[in-house]
Amino acid sequence: MSVPAAIRETTATPETQTRPRTWLRAVQAYIALTKPRIIELLLITTLPAMILAARGWPGWRLVLATLIGGYLAAGGAGAINCYIDRDIDSLMARTRKRPLVTGAVTPRRALIFGIVLGVLAFIEMALFVNVLSAALSIAAFAFYVFVYTLLLKRSTPQNIVIGGAAGAMPPVIGWAAVTGHLSWAALVMFAIIFIWTPPHFWALALRFKDDYERAHVPMLPVVRGEGVTLRQILLYTALLVICSLLLLPTGTVGVTYGVVAVLLGGAFLWKAWRLEHSPGPRAAMTLFRFSTTYLALLFIAMAADQALRGLAGRL
C-alpha cells in the first residue's frame, strides 16, 4: 500500500529542516569567533581615515576591498585569540558562551580558520588595495596574536595599554589604502585610538574584575586596585581629549570636527570624573558604553567635516 504524498512530505520535513539549522548554527559560531562587535568599531575608524586621505569619497571598489580585508585580518586574529584563551574564557562569565567554550567549534578548526583568514586578508589587500596596507594589516594581526595575546595579556597590567596598538591600526591602514604612504594625520588617528583603549577597556575590567581575578589575568583593577584604575582612566581620558585636538594642525579637519571633539571630550571627561567619585559596576559600564559611542562619533565627525568642507568648496 503506497503512502499518500502529503504524509510523505510531512514525515520528511523534520529531517530536511535539521540540516539547514545545523549549518546555520555552524556559520553563526564561526562568525562569533571573529568578534564582530569589536570589528564593527574597527571598520568605523577605517572609513573616515580613507575619506580624509582622499579629501572626499575614495570610491566604492577601494572602500569595499579595504573593509573586507580589514574584517578578514581582525576576524582571523580574533579567532586565534579565542583558540589561545579558551582555558580562561571558560572561567569568565563574560566569555563563557564563546564557541570554543560551548564546543560549537573545535580548537583545531578555530586555529585553522583564524590562520586562513589572516592569509586571505594579506592576499586580498595586496591584490585589490596595495602592498603597504596588506603589510600593515598582517602586522596588526601578528601584534594582536603574538604580542598582546601570547606575551602581554597574562603577564602585565600594561597588557591593554601596549596591546592597544593592534586596535589602533585601522585608520593607518585606511590612509595607506588611499595614498600608498603614511602621514602625520594617520599617526594622530592611531594615537587617538591607542590612548582611548585603556579607559575604554579598564571600565569594562572594573565591571568584570572578579572574572579576571578568577582567570588570573592581571588587569589593572585586579593588580593595582579600583582607586588606581579610576585615576588612570581619568588621566588617559584627559590625554585623549588633547590628542583628539592634535588632528587640527594637520589641516585634514576643520572647525566642525574641532567643535565635536571638544564637546565629546568634555562629556567623556565628565563621565570619567563621575566614575572616580561615584564608582560602581553600573557606572563603569555606563562609561564603557559611552566610550564606544565617543570613538564612533569622533571618527564620523572627521568624515562629516570633510564632506562639509567639500560642499563649501563647490559653492
Shape: globular
What number of domains?
A: 1
CATH T-level topology:
Tetracycline Repressor, domain 2
Which secondary-structure class do the elements indicate? mainly alpha
Overview of the molecule:
The protein contains 15 helices and no strands. The chain has a single domain (32-314), classed as Tetracycline Repressor, domain 2, CATH 1.10.357.140. The protein has helices spanning 5-33, 36-54, 60-84, 86-89, 99-102, 107-128, 131-152, 159-167, 170-179, 184-207, 209-214, 220-223, 226-245, 255-277, 281-314. The chain is an all-alpha fold and 315 residues long. The radius of gyration is 22 Å and the shape is globular.
Task: Tell me the layout of helices and strands.
Blueprint: H1 5-33, H2 36-54, H3 60-84, H4 86-89, H5 99-102, H6 107-128, H7 131-152, H8 159-167, H9 170-179, H10 184-207, H11 209-214, H12 220-223, H13 226-245, H14 255-277, H15 281-314
Helix pairs in contact: 1-3, 2-3, 2-9, 2-15, 3-6, 3-7, 6-7, 7-8, 7-9, 8-10, 9-10, 10-13, 10-15, 13-14, 14-15
Task: Give a quick summary of the entry.
The chain is mainly alpha-helical. 81% of the residues lie in helices and 0% in strands. The protein has 15 helices and no strands.
List keywords for this structure.
315 residues; mainly alpha; Tetracycline Repressor, domain 2; 15 helices; 81% helix
